């Protein structure tokens, strides 16, 4: 199997505090990888290192075949990123946002035009193209910002709680978009607070107190902890956590 | 009453825990006073001067040579009469003119007493005082040399003449100026930011839902800044008296009383800004661009108001700092009493009252 | 007694351009734990702000403890506790300072009502000299709850107290709410998490400013009009795709380890029919079983109706 993320004993220290402690895991091409953990378990720290936003204290990692220390710029070209907190510019229109984000990833004018038309078509947003993003319902914003995050056809897309607060129907439509992206060969790395979404992942890792405490398919995890839902798996693992945020 | 006091207590905690801002607040007046007081009157080199020598004798020539030799001066021209001096000043090319009267050497040798006139362009008062000081020092050196040769009580009077700004306002200008700026900065900017911060943080929501009278929220916010401003005022006054040697000629009590009035004006302005803005950046921007910059421009301590076009002079009337500046100068410099400043005080009082009424009308007991 | 009553409440923003709440009516009984369940942007926060007298409604009327939210806002403000969605305490004050401050603002003292917050406060006690900004998410939430309770309010408004909080802390928080309810406090809580609905006595499902259903969670579930089935196979992604295309399927939604489906046809042989269809599509390890709907099933059903 093709490995797109490979980490070996990746560690991040802030003074005495070890935010992420010797994280080792692989993510394979075309996989939906669920990255779970309680508040403060170190998810954000780990994700920042993987995106090339923060330099690890020790350990090694390659993302899309690029070294995390030496090739941060290459990594950034090959990944997409979307978070619940920052996604798009609220005071720019739908089209302006698409053009802007396409532009910073170096898409040519022709590609941009093609891609944005195609994207608007798929999302069924033709009548909203000239509307400010701020005026769109949350669900649409999230779908749009996901589509923008994969506009440059990255190898991996990192999604940080992409469906927080979204209604149940839109949440499922959002996952349809994720499946489509996976079909086109993009690897998805996702964090979520919704445990039913954890079930949609091919494999799940659970972070507790800066360490990866469990990593397997949802079915095997449930089996391992002899429970029937991911909710219970999470509870079993996170209950013993010593630190929170 | 208990809850007002805990509110004020809380405001003080906010102020003291934000060390950086606190440092800036107290550092600022000190830095400004020192900047205006010393840095701006720094050593001057190669100031361009002209000499008008009616004497053309040995003594005048020797002094001119000395001036030439000094690093401070660069003699542009030897002129023939006073009229040319005026013309050269108007061209703005020179900083000082040195005038030797006819019979300079004769008077010195026979009457043991003579005069040199130093004419400076005092529209730049700091430079004017500095360079005329240098020049009289050089002339004194010459006299001392003479006295060592012949033990006679030679006397050369240097007569200083400032043109364009005969009062030489610099020293007395910036202390009242800094006072009004600092008070504005603390009261308008800090207060508006502090209130808007509660809106931004969401704590205003909880306060509004409490039985605490919302208007008291704002009154309590103003108290620490009133206190801080009075401390700042004291620091400025102490610095100006003991470091810059500028005495307070009038009543200190009166000075504090009108300053408190001005602080109230500024606080109500800060309130008005916080009432109409929702983010700390907006409050800061409005305070800086809308209050501080016009105050610097129209108060009269940096740019003389008399030289401004009439419409701009009219604009200056609505700037509270202008009136405060006049009051402070009258009390500190001229030593005048309340009878001399009641008009300006009344203007400030009226402004404060108006601002408070607008504030009360605009005050929101709910979110929008 | 009805502690909170809303009659045809409406609220718009931007001069009527955005309809945040439209014609919402419901009531909360004394001592009840009532949940307002809906996604972001459904109008939950606007309703909370109207009830806590922070916003004026554009239409309709509302009362808290029998007092009108517009006319008697001053009295209401003395008697309600409010925890806004965003953490709204002073980050630069310590735990103790925050608590003392809010107690005094509400004309009381920590001592006077300590018994009410004791259970929660003991967990905070070790950090009482720590600044609120330095607390963990769960601790912040507990402190905010203490501050909202300190004056022994008759009605407690909690706007999305568990958003962004992990499963463990959420569980703890709901346990705290249950204990508070036993003290006789009426609690109105909002949440975007559908699974929390069953922890409330009665709930209102809200979407785009309108209430879709109000009842006990059990009744809402019983009112689900269709027979619901859970399906799974080895390839869940393809399964979802194939189910959506199958003519006998009326609705199909992913629900964690299973997909939930309803049939167009209620005849007993539809189940076998579906399994045949799926086998034709080469699905393996097919499992099909009837399930009790969850609140989320009901919410989706009501949204799509």
General description of the model:
The complex is a heterotrimer of chains A (245), B (368) and C (305). Chain A has a single domain, classed as P-loop containing nucleotide triphosphate hydrolases (Rossmann fold, 3-Layer(aba) Sandwich). The two termini of chain A are 35 Å apart. In chain A, helix 3 crosses helix 4 and helix 5 packs parallel to helix 6. Chain A has 9 helices and 10 strands. In chain A, 37% of the residues lie in helices and 27% in strands. Chain C folds into 2 domains: 221 residues, Rossmann fold (3-Layer(aba) Sandwich), CATH 3.40.50; 76 residues, Alpha-Beta Plaits, CATH 3.30.70. Chain C is built from 10 helices and 14 strands. In chain C, a hairpin with a 2-residue loop joins strand 9 and strand 10. In chain C, helix 3 packs parallel to helix 5. At the A-C interface, helix 6, helix 7, helix 8 and helix 9 of A face helix 5, helix 6, helix 8, strand 12 and helix 10 of C. Chain B: This is Multidrug ABC transporter permease. Chain B: It is found in: Cell membrane. Chain B: Keywords: Cell membrane, Membrane, Transmembrane, Transmembrane helix, Transport. Chain B: One of its GO terms (molecular function) is ABC-type transporter activity. Chain B: It is a multi-pass membrane protein.
């Amino acid at each position: 199997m093709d490995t797109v993320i490979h980490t070996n004993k990746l560690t991040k220290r802030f003074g005495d505090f070890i935010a992420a402690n010797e994280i080792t895991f692989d993510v394979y091409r075309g996989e939906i990888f669920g990255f779970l953990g309680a508040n403060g378990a170190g998810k954000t720290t780990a994700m920042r290192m993987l995106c090339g936003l923060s330099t690890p204290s020790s350990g090694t990692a390659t993302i899309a075949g690029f070294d995390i220390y030496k090739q941060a710029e290459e990594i950034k070209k090959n990944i997409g990123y979307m978070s619940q907190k920052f996604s798009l510019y609220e005071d720019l229109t739908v089209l302006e946002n698409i053009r802007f984000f396409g532009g910073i990833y170096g898409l040519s004018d022709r590609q941009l035009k093609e891609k944005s038309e195609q994207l608007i078509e798929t999302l069924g947003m033709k009548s909203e193209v000239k509307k400010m993003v701020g005026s769109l319902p949350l669900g649409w914003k999230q779908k749009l910002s996901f589509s923008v995050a994969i506009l440059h056809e990255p190898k991996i897309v990192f999604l940080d709680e992409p469906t927080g607060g979204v209604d149940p129907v839109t949440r499922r439509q959002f996952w349809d978009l994720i499946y489509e992206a996976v079909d086109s060969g993009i690897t998805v790395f996702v964090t979520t607070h919704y445990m039913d979404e954890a079930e949609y992942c091919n494999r799940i890792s659970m972070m507790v107190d800066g360490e990866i405490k469990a990593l397997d398919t949802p079915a095997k995890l449930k089996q391992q902890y002899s429970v029937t839902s991911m909710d219970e798996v999470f509870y079993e693992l996170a209950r013993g956590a010593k630190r929170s945020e | 009453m208990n809850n007002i006091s805990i509110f004020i207590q809380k405001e003080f905690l906010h102020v003291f825990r934000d060390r950086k801002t606190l440092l800036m607040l107290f550092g600022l007046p000190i830095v400004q006073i020192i900047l205006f007081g010393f840095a701006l009157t720094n050593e001057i080199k190669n100031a361009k001067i002209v000499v008008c020598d009616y004497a053309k004798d040995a003594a005048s020539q020797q002094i001119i040579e000395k001036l030439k030799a000094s690093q401070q001066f660069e003699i542009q021209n030897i002129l023939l009469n006073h009229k040319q001096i005026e013309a050269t000043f108007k061209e703005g090319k020179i900083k000082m003119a040195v005038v030797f009267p006819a019979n300079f050497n004769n008077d010195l040798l026979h009457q043991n007493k003579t005069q040199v006139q130093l004419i400076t362009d005092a529209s730049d008062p700091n430079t004017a005082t500095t360079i005329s000081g240098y020049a009289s020092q050089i002339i004194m050196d010459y006299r001392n040399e003479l006295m060592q040769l012949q033990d006679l009580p030679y006397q050369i009077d240097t007569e200083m003449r400032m043109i364009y700004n005969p009062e030489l306002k610099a020293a007395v200008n910036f202390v009242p100026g800094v006072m009004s700026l600092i008070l504005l900065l603390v009261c308008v900017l800090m207060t508006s930011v502090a209130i808007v911060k509660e809106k931004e943080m969401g704590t205003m929501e909880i306060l509004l839902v409490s039985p605490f009278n919302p208007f008291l929220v704002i009154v309590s916010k103003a108290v620490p800044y009133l206190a801080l401003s009075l401390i700042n005022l004291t620091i400025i006054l102490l610095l100006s008296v003991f470091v810059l040697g500028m005495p307070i000629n009038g009543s200190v009590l009166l000075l504090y009383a009108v300053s408190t009035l001005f602080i109230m004006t500024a606080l109500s302005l800060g309130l008005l800004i916080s009432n109409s803005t929702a983010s700390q950046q907006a409050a800061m921007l409005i305070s800086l661009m809308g209050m501080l910059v016009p105050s610097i421009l129209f108060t009269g301590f940096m740019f003389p108001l008399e030289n401004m076009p009439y419409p701009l002079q009219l604009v200056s009337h609505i700037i509270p700092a202008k009136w405060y500046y006049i009051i402070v100068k009258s009390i500190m410099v001229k030593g005048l009493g309340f009878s001399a400043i009641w008009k300006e005080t009344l203007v400030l009082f009226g402004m404060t009252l108006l601002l408070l009424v607008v504030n009360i009308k605009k005050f929101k007991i709910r979110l929008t | 007694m009805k502690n909170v009553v809303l009659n045809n409440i409406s609220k718009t923003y931007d001069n009527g351009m955005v309809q945040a709440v439209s014609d919402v009516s419901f009531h909360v009984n004394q001592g009840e734990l009532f949940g307002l369940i809906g996604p972001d942007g459904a109008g939950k926060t606007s309703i909370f702000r109207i009830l806590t007298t922070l916003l004026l409604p554009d239409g309709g009327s509302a009362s808290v403890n029998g007092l009108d939210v517009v006319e008697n806002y001053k009295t209401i403000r003395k008697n309600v506790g409010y925890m806004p969605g965003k953490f709204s305490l002073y980050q630069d004050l310590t735990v103790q300072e925050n608590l003392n401050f809010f107690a005094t603002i509400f004309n009381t003292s920590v001592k006077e009502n300590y018994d009410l917050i004791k259970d929660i406060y003991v967990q905070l006690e070790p950090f009482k000299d720590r600044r609120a900004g330095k607390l963990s998410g769960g601790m912040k939430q507990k402190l905010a709850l203490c501050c909202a309770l300190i004056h022994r309010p008759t009605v407690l408004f909690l706007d999305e107290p568990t958003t962004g909080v992990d499963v463990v802390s959420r569980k703890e928080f709901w346990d705290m709410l249950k204990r508070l309810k036993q003290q006789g406090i009426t609690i109105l809580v909002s949440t975007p998490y559908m699974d929390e609905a069953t922890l409330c006595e009665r709930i209102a499902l809200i979407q785009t400013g309108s209430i879709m259903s109000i009842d006990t969670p059990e009744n809402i579930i019983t009112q689900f009009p269709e027979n619901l089935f859970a399906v799974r196979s080895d390839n869940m992604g393809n399964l979802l795709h194939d189910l959506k295309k199958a003519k006998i399927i009326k609705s199909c939604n992913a629900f964690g380890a299973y997909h939930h489906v309803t049939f167009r046809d209620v005849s007993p042989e539809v189940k076998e029919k579906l399994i045949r269809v799926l086998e034709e599509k080469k699905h393996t390890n097919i499992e099909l079983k009837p399930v009790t709907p969850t609140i989320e099933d009901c919410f989706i059903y009501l949204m799509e109706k």
